[in-house]
Design brief:
The protein is α+β, with helices and mostly antiparallel strands. The chain folds into 5 domains: 44 residues, Arc Repressor Mutant, subunit A, CATH 1.10.10; 92 residues, no CATH class; 225 residues, Ribonuclease H-like superfamily/Ribonuclease H (Nucleotidyltransferase, domain 5), CATH 3.30.420.10; 45 residues, no CATH class; 150 residues, Ubiquitin Conjugating Enzyme. The chain is built from 24 helices and 14 strands. A hairpin with a 2-residue loop joins strand 7 and strand 8. Helix 6 crosses helix 17, helix 13 packs across helix 14 and helix 19 runs antiparallel to helix 20.
Length: 727
């Protein structure tokens, strides 16, 4: 039984599992200390240093004179209450490292912070009894952040691609060097930013009230993954253009544009995204009428998407003194004003409108009807009207455009880390490096062991010992020799293995001895993909004759199934390598690798590619001829059916079978009876007559259709480069 005069802290300390409460509640019976900020105490001490008495400083700043006296005599006075494990200086070093990691795109969480403290304590040789194995608890990390709340915050992070993180200060400085020249003496009313975004059909998640203990509460609400593209544009002084809406459809209907915002425009495209036609129409119908009325130079700032621009569009804008300024690649999260400050509140307001619709009149609709969309856009503009101008101006200011200030963007990039020589900082840096190594260099996954079906009757259990001898036998032989080695070879292998065990050979030496053994007993052999083929005799290209019979072996892969197949084939023709058709030279790169060929193709006569000599390579898969080879030009090419990196997109090189998109018939695609000669002849035909309906290079296909003269000029320049003639 507890006595009345027993101290209050005794039973609390004896309770098992007792921990420090997260929110400390002051005992009303204890003494109340007056709290002063460090800044107020330092100001009072400064007055004392300049000759003011302790009592005068006490009356002036409202701090008891005894406090000032103790502080003046002992500058290293500890704070009231329990002391932290690390000193203030040590914690400050860790805070700086946490901020540095976040700036460089690798922010750390509470667990990472605890690991850093553990590594630091281990590195300094400190042992903290209250930490298990020097590992702080979660409460330590929570209070660490709370102690440094003026510099640290806990937030939910967003993921960005490495391409965006690769934007450097040099890229930003080059961009602003040009921007300052262009925007010199240009008023904010003549600077505009345009950007397209999409409004989705999903109102998103929200916090709700649920039963305690319910881990995954659900809300009944129809939604879909569809979205509608909209082009927004605004000036640096805060004026917003009417929206330009693009539906995903083949046709337009009158109800899709009624009841909407005044001045809004509506269009459609097959993909639902902006293409060159939609963008040109936006410039002509939305931007041009406003910009033409403004005096002086006008600038449209946005991303440089090739699908947006055409020479005719740029020429038309230049007639009205309108110029385009393109943002650095992968930097829109830093340099696009609408992205930085406008789209987030816009989409927040959109989700509220969408949620109100789906929880009431639209609760049974699978998606938003297009005839209601204009009305919702009108409501959206009304809901953002209050803060619209302020948000737009903030975006231009944060992106350093108006007023011009590159430091606004540069301060958002990670800065230079200055190394110092203090011992504590060295250990903190080592702790952070140790943790980042674990992030970057994770443990290598164990090698996957191929499974083998075992013959076990239904209902019977098995144990590992039942198959230990079989597993050991499989694991001991890592060379995957051909299964049809004769009995004499197997006996010699067993003798060799016994002698190798006695002499303790390494695995590499063992492989060499076995390979030598097979070569002595089975004639020539060849290894491919850890598979050894015996009784193989090398044949030079000139040694092959028509009507010869050859054994062809290759690896066929179907999903996770891998099988070696063997066929006997007859050589029907050698026309390609020995007597190639006009305009083609092709053959294996070397006699040791027949899976990689090189080719030279002459541009067909009467075309813009006439006279050119275009090098290419063909890569044959292991299961050829069941699968087609891949062809890639190794020189610069500009063609509707050739990707920017030189890969050829043609029906004959597509996998056999029906086209999933229904565009090609199975007869046009690859089949095992096709030959390399036919592939190269098809490519020559493709150079002469491009297929612009299914373009691998969209820009080339568009130029081929709309500006044939410009296309021919580019092709002629490429021809001259292939011949080594200056362009």
């Amino acid at each position: 039984m507890l006595m009345l005069n027993t101290p209050l802290w005794v039973p609390l300390k004896l309770c098992s599992g007792w921990t420090m409460p997260r929110i400390y509640k002051h005992d009303p019976r204890s003494k109340i200390y007056q709290k002063h900020t460090p800044e107020a105490i330092e100001a009072a001490l400064n007055d004392i240093r300049f000759g003011m008495s302790f009592r005068d400083a006490s009356r002036k700043h409202g701090i008891h004179y005894s406090v000032l006296y103790r502080r003046s005599k002992n500058s290293d006075m500890k704070s009231h209450g329990g002391q932290t494990v690390l000193s203030y200086e040590e914690e400050q070093l860790i805070v700086n490292q946490l901020i540095t990691c976040a700036e460089w795109g690798y922010p750390l969480d509470h667990y990472d912070l605890r690991m850093i403290v553990k590594y630091y304590l281990d590195g300094r040789g400190k042992t903290i009894k209250k930490f298990k194995n020097n590992m702080p608890g979660y409460e330590y990390a929570f209070h660490f952040v709370k102690r440094h709340k003026n510099m640290l915050r806990t937030r939910i992070c967003q993921n960005i691609k490495r391409s965006r993180a690769a934007v450097s200060p040099e890229d930003i400085n080059r961009y602003f060097d040009r921007l300052e020249e262009e925007l010199r003496d240009v008023p904010p009313s003549n600077i505009f930013n345009y950007d397209e975004t999409n409004l989705s059909d999903d109102p998103g998640r929200k916090k709700i009230i649920s039963k305690r203990g319910c881990r995954y509460p659900e809300r009944i609400c129809n939604f879909s993954k569809s979205s509608t593209s909209i082009m927004f544009a605004a000036s640096a002084e805060g004026k917003l253009f009417p929206p330009y809406i693009v539906y995903k459809a083949q046709n337009m209907y009158d109800s899709w544009r009624t009841g909407g915002l005044k001045g809004a425009r509506y269009n459609r495209s097959a993909s639902g995204w902006f293409d060159a036609t939609c963008f040109a129409d936006w410039v002509e119908k939305i931007a041009m009428p406003v910009l033409k009325k403004l005096p002086g130079k006008k600038f449209l700032i946005g991303d440089n998407l090739s699908s947006h621009f055409s020479p005719d569009l740029v020429k038309s804008c230049s007639q009205h003194n309108i110029s385009f300024i393109f943002l650095p690649a992968n930097s829109t999260n830093l340099t696009q004003p609408l992205d930085v400050a406008f789209f987030r509140p816009l989409k927040g307001a959109w989700r509220k409108i969408l949620e109100g619709y789906k929880m009431n009149e639209g609760r049974k609709s699978a998606t938003i009807p297009k005839d209601r969309f204009p009305h919702f856009i009108k409501i959206l503009y009304q809901s953002i009207e209050k803060n619209k101008e302020q948000n737009i101006r903030s975006g231009f200011r944060k992106c350093g455009i108006s007023p011009l200030n590159r430091e606004e963007v540069l301060t958002q990039l990670p800065g230079h880390i200055t190394a110092q020589d203090q011992e504590a900082e060295v250990h903190v840096n080592n702790a952070v490096v140790e943790l980042l190594k674990k992030f970057r260099y994770a443990e290598q996954p164990s090698q996957k062991i191929r499974k083998k079906k075992i013959d076990v009757p239904a209902g019977k259990s098995v144990a590992g010992a039942d198959f230990s001898s079989e597993n050991e036998e499989d694991n001991s032989d890592n060379l995957d020799f051909q299964e049809n080695i004769d009995l004499e070879d197997r006996n010699r292998q067993e003798e060799s293995e016994e002698s190798d065990e006695e002499m303790n050979y390494t695995l590499a030496e063992l492989k060499k001895r076995r390979e030598k053994l097979i070569s002595e007993t089975s004639g020539c052999y060849a290894s491919y993909n850890q598979k050894t083929f015996n009784n193989v005799f090398p044949i030079k290209l000139e040694g092959i004759q028509e009507s010869d019979w050859l054994v062809v072996a290759f690896l066929a892969e179907h999903g996770k199934t891998r099988k070696f197949k063997y066929y006997i084939g007859k050589v029907l023709s050698l026309k390609l390598t020995l007597n190639p058709p006009d305009g083609i030279i092709a053959g294996p790169i070397n006699e040791e690798n027949f899976f990689e060929w090189e080719a030279l193709i002459t541009g067909p006569e009467g075309t813009c590619f006439e006279g050119g000599v275009f090098p290419a390579k063909l890569i044959f898969p292991p299961d050829y001829p069941l699968s087609p080879p891949k062809m890639q030009f190794t020189c610069e090419m500009f063609h509707p059916n050739i990707y920017a990196d030189g890969r050829v997109c043609i029906s004959i090189l597509h996998a056999p079978g029906d086209d999933p998109m229904g565009y090609e018939s199975s007869a046009e695609r690859w089949s095992p009876v096709q030959s390399v000669e036919k592939i190269l002849l098809s490519v020559i035909s493709m150079l002469a007559e491009p297929n612009d309906e299914s373009g691998a290079n969209v820009d080339a296909a568009k130029m081929w259709r709309e500006n044939r003269d410009e296309f021919n000029k580019i092709a002629e320049k490429i021809v001259r480069r292939t011949l080594g003639i200056p362009t």
